[in-house]
Amino acid sequence: MKRAFLSALSVGLAALFLTGPAQAQGNPGPLRIEITEGVIEPLPIAVPPFLAETPAASQFARDIAQVVADDLEGSGLFRAIPENAFISPITSFDSPVQYADWKAINAQALVTGSVSVASDGRLVVKFRLFDVFSDAPLGKGLQFVASQSSWRRMGHKVADAVYSRITGEGGYFDSRVVFVSETGPKNARQKRLAIMDYDGANVQFLTDSSAIVLAPRFSPTGDRVLYTSYATGRPQITLLDVNSVRSQGLGSAQGGEMSFAPRFSPDGRSVVFSLTNGGNSDIYRRDLSSGAQTRLTATPAIETAPSFSPDGRQIVFESDRSGSQQLYVMSATGGEARRISFGPGRYGTPVWSPRGDLIAFTKQNQGRFHIGVMRTDGSEERLLTSSFLDESPTWSPNGRVIMFTRETSGAGGAPSLYSVDISGRNLRRVPTPGAASDPAWSPLLP
Q1: Given a cut of 90, is residue 33 above it in pLDDT?
Q2: pLDDT score for 292
Q3: 428 contact partners, CB below 8 Å, separation of at least 6
Q4: Burial grade of 193 (CB within 10 A; 0-12, 13-18, 19 or more)
Q5: In angstroms, what CA-CA distances link 313 with 231, 290, 317, 442?
Q6: Which keywords accompany this UniProt record?
Q7: Torsion region of 4: left, alpha or beta (phi above 0 gives left; psi -120 to 50 gives alpha)
Q8: 126-150 as b/e, with b when 16 or more CB fall inside 10 Å?
Q9: Taking a C-beta distance cutoff of 8 angstroms, is the pair 157, 446 a contact?
């Protein structure tokens, strides 16, 4: 862990820089968490309840501050100091910070904020971040303006800004997750697409339970979702508009063909997927505008689960062409593939990190399932989890956290969503209303 100055960050939701007495004054605070070195002791941070500047903002002020504290603590990098430990309350957003009182309770960072309801009914949220031990603000304050229904997003935006200033990396709190919501007995599950905030709040269903759905994936802009649907009786790739909740089959499968495991290209213009015909599965690429389809692999093996590199030049996929299920990387235009997994066991469901540096995967070995990561050349393999059944990894927008499905054993076993950071620490269950599987993390919301 280091202490180093970070400059102010500009973010959306009608964000404005604040000016005033607490603005950065040329005395930069050197507070910083260096994530790559591994964080064992979370950084103590104080997030007092935000001040309500208008009577109607009272509950929003407390709730938004709680979202900020929960986001930061949930990352595993911070430890929120309980409110009953505070020595001096924050009574004015513009009053000078009493650094000695925060040092006395070992707070290394302090987040202050205020909330008001404007004449047009919108919420106005202001916040500042302070490096307590340097007696200085960390960058300029920010102000967000949005509808009252967006109050949780405003909390996530504040938390993302704090995370970014202290770690030097992008946040991931203002994002959503699409997943498969499951109900019913294990041998007759009903499956629906659902979407929620990254932390399990605001669950909404995108499909009904009339057809089984699998493997949803967000578009790069987060406004569309690809998934596999059994509405026609056989698996078919379907494209859903998140805002209108309208879906359409991409219609590539014919006769006895089955198409599944779709994923967008980084530019959102094409899709890679598996197509099975006559018992042989290969990987194809489809242009979404023209419908033109290109076969990328042509072997007798089962080849599936393709995932683009962030630059769109390569594809990682799973194949049993060597006799067991392993991971391969090939050009995005097809051609010769190189094997990158060589450890014991079987590897599957590879997903390229949005940072481009790692590939997440599922591994089965000696009766256990694992979520792991490796370099894109297959080196430095690390297993992050181990259980009866862990599968379906998906990356947070900043490439620092992986969400996945964990299913318990036995007749009553059911899947749940979990997250873990890429060091293998901070394993957490993501709350969902019922059984849930196949998570897919969106990019940061605009």
Answers
A1: no
A2: 93
A3: 74, 418, 419, 420
A4: buried
A5: 33, 20, 14, 21
A6: Cell cycle, Cell division, Periplasm, Signal
A7: beta
A8: bbbbbbbbbebbbbbbbbbbbeeeb
A9: no
Residue 17's DSSP bridge partners are 142
The bridge status of strand 314-319 relative to strand 303-308 is antiparallel
pTM above 0.90, yes or no: yes
6: left (phi over 0), alpha (psi -120 to 50) or beta: beta
Residues 377-401 pLDDT 10s: 999 999 999 999 999 999 999 999 9
Asked if pLDDT for residue 253 goes beyond 60, the answer is no
List the domains of the chain with CATH numbers. Answer: 43-167 (3.40.50.10070), 176-444 (2.120.10.30)
pLDDT over 90 at 185, yes or no: no
∠ at Cα 12 (11, 15), nearest 5°? 80
What pLDDT does 72 receive? 98
Which parts of 122-254 are beta strand (E)?
Answer: 123-131, 136-137, 142-146, 176-183, 190-197, 204-205, 213-218, 224-229, 236-241, 246-249
Beta-bridge partners for 371? 362
Instruction: Say whether pLDDT at 11 is over 60.
Output: no
What letter would DSSP give residue 200? Answer: S
What's the token pair of residue 317? 């996929």
The Cα 76–Cα 287 span in angstroms is: 40
pLDDT value of position 14:
54
More confident residue, 35 or 261: 261
Strands (E), 257-336: 258-264, 270-277, 280-287, 293-295, 303-308, 314-319, 326-331
Residue 51 has pLDDT above 70, yes or no: yes
